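Hi everyone, sorry if this is the wrong subforum. Our group has a chain we'd like a structural model of before ordering constructs, and none of us has done structure prediction before. Sequence below.
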Amino acid sequence: MDELNKAVEAALKGPLAERMLDDQRRQMQEWGISLPPTQAVVFDFGLGQFDKIGEIEHWIANEVKEGYCAKFLFVQDGQTCPMHHHKEKHETFFIVKGSVLMVLDGVERKMEEGDVLAVDQGKAHGFTGVGPALILEVSKPCLLSDNYFDNPDISLGCAAEEQKYLMSHGAESTHSTNRHGDVASGEKARGDSLMGTP
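Answer:
Right subforum, don't worry. Here is the predicted structure as C-alpha cells:
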C-alpha cells in the first residue's frame, strides 16, 4: 500500500498523536470494537489544530489495481474532516458508531449509527463529530493526490503537490482551487459554514 506509506509520512507524530490514539483506543474499548492491526494515520491536515480539524484513519485495504479501498475514520466530538472533493474517487460512508454532521454538496445532514451516504466524484463533502464517531468508508482506491481541499492551507493532496512543485522551481502559487475546481486568483477558497475556514 504505497499510498498508505505516503499517508503515514504526512501524518501527525509525537506526543499529541499518541494522546489522540490513546483516547481513540479507550473509546473503541468502551464501544467493544476492534480496529484492524494496521498503522493508524493521525491527520491534522497540516493546520496544527487537531482537536478541531483532524481525524484518525485505519486503512483496511487500498487496492489500486483491483479498484477498491476500505478504511475506518474516527473523529472526536466537535472534530472536523474539512470540506474537500475527489475527481476520481467515489466513496460510501457508513456510520458504525456515534453521529456526525455531514455536509455534502452544500447540504448539511445529521448522520447516525447505521446511516449510509454515497458521495459521487466532484461532490464537496466534510463532516464533524457530534460526540465521538466511527465511520466506515468504502470507495474506489484512495490516492492522496486526488484530495482537493477548500482550504488552500491544507498541506495534503493535489494543491499541496502543486505548491511543492512550484516552490521547488522557484515560484509561488498565486491561486487556489475551490471545491468546484474553479481557480480563485489572490484569494482563499472558502468552505461551507459548518466547516468554516480552519
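For your construct planning: The longest helix spans residues 15-31. DSSP finds three helices and 13 strands in the chain.
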